[in-house]
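Listing 4. Sequential folding, example run.
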Amino acid sequence: MGLIKICFTLFVGLYLVSCHEEEDSASPDGIDYRQEMREFVIGISDYAKSLDPHFQVIPQNGIELVSSNGAETGLPDTSYLEAIDGNGQEDLFYGYKQDDKATPAEDNAYLISFLNISKSAGNTILVTDYCSTPSKMDDSYARNSANQYVSFAADRRALNDIPGYPHLVHGENNDIITSLSGARNFLYLINPDQFATKADFILSVTATNYDLIVMDLFFEDGTPFTSSEVDQLRSKANGGKRMVISYMSIGEAEDYRYYWLPEWNSHKPAWMEEENPDWAGNFKVQYWNEEWQSIIFSNDSSYVRKIIDAGFDGIYLDIIDAFEYFE
């Protein structure tokens, strides 16, 4: 028995060291990048819900944050899970390696293991698959439904159109949607460059029956949507009502946003990192930096406050997985 106890003690010790290294090995400078992002999202949620208790907070990608140690077998991180109302996930079944191509089974299983931690905590899962072949779009909707996820099959990664297929919105209904948990489908339309005017954009959206739209606070010309315009966007064509959620990137600074200062074009602040090679004009940021966080939330001139004042029902937070860049 003594030998067994010794072996067991050694096993537990090695396991705990392994878990600790899993959390901290990527942070030689002493910064826990994952926890910093969790706390950033929690801060945004606390601030937004203090102004509107029904405001929905949905981080996209970076799904490992739902686990306390970032592993599939880790305990749920309750503070993070209680601060959010859902998780957005791209490329779950299609688009992970290439658009209109099936996501490899091992990657799919990995993501689902974390998504189900959030779903089990009562959060809604919103999946965006990138596929344009009708049979693959059908498959995406079917597989997401089987997992009890709400999904959108985007036929363009630019997210600048309303797909013509399927003709009827998957899970179409004429319900009045007042919470994320009530949505059966959604439209992800954050790039309005195909619409000549705000009026055209509003007319096109209200001609659909999606339960929820994820869009940008700003139109193509840089003008924000007003609370009156957001209220118009809530109307579904069949008489029902939808939720209107605003997209916002918190892991990168974008040089076309209102907060971008002219001097940053030549002398960037110390907390701004290199440009994203895949998205021109997007720059990685040290998201734990107080100056950057004050741009995003916590004051009356912040980005989150602008979104709330415009009457949006929630916020869709992107570049949550920025911790991977720093790790």
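-- end of first protein; second protein begins --
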Amino acid sequence: MKYHVKNLKLAAGGKKRILWADHDMPVLQQIRARFSQQKPLKNYRLSACLHITAETANLARALKAGGADLVLCASNPLSTQDDVAASLVSDFQIPVFAVRGEDRVTYYKHIKAAVDHKPQVTMDDGADLVNELHTRRRKEAANIIGSMEETTTGVIRLRAMARDGKLLFPVIAVNDAATKNLFDNRYGTGQSTIDGIIRATDILLAGKHIVVAGYGWCGKGCAMRARGMGAKVIVTEINHIKALEAAMDGFQVMTMAEAAPLGDLFVTLTGNKHVIRAEHFRRMKDGAVVCNSGHFDVEIDIKILKKLARKVRLQVRRFVDEYTLPGNRRIFLLAEGRLVNLAAAEGHPASVMDMSFSTQALASEFVIKKRGKLEVDVHNVPLAIEEIVSRLKLKSMNLKIDKLTPEQVLYLASSGEGT
């Protein structure tokens, strides 16, 4: 078995972490049990470019139980949990190509290894694997019957490719499933982002001005959690409707230029590029903390920050770099501008990833069942999959909901009754 992980001797700790997460993923447990019996992925090669965490490991276990010939690589250089990667190789015999802190060259060597597996199905968190298949490895793209995309940034890229007629195979937008973005993006990102910030800085949020860039589901979750800890939250947006929503949710809404001199802490969650730029850095107060919880490390213009700085001190505290600007104003950048919730913390709690990865696993089964029948486009997750996941999750939480009476069913299907 070919693989590249930091050290197989870390496997024992990784297995403990994987099994601990498994306790909080009851829906995925049930899917893994069914997959183990029915083998719906048997004889299919699958490559997944995902964050290599304990939660992802349990998705990988489910896919392998379903019969998939699986290879994993990292979707971010700083999100890999090296002990988990080691355990996947040593204890579960799943090839992994991921080392925390890997450089850009190694990162793309690992993606190349995932493509060398000649997959028929792919999974992505950010669309880097799909991008490789559409650029340097177009020949292998002919083997792909379908792909799943896990995050907002990746879906944005893929919808642009579909719109431009460049997409080569069907993609399921797992990120856009309600069982994913309403929970994973909002509650998962909200909690894990705050967790990463506090671990990196030991900052007290109460009383601080926290600027949240972007009021999508991830931004909503972060703003909600920051306010819950006593912060004065400012939201910046480019979308009129989302800005209105933020204002009516009780947050201050302003431009980044207006927020720059006010903020003690800035968090980007947009999926866009250079949300915080030179003109913003120039207006920030001494000691401002800047971080990103969007997928790629482009939301903060780090290159211009380096140019503006007259002095840079790396790792003044773990995950914290200090940039001193003219006038001795210091700006602290967390986790090199990468995902602070995964680089400085452990990512989303297993309980919420239970839903996302259950949706992901069932989407892979769906793609195989529909082989050759899906148009080359970006597709939504079928409602039937969403209902299975939400029903099982409610059951695991010992929650029950009402059912329509026959009278109610008839009423909703008719138009005869009125005032």
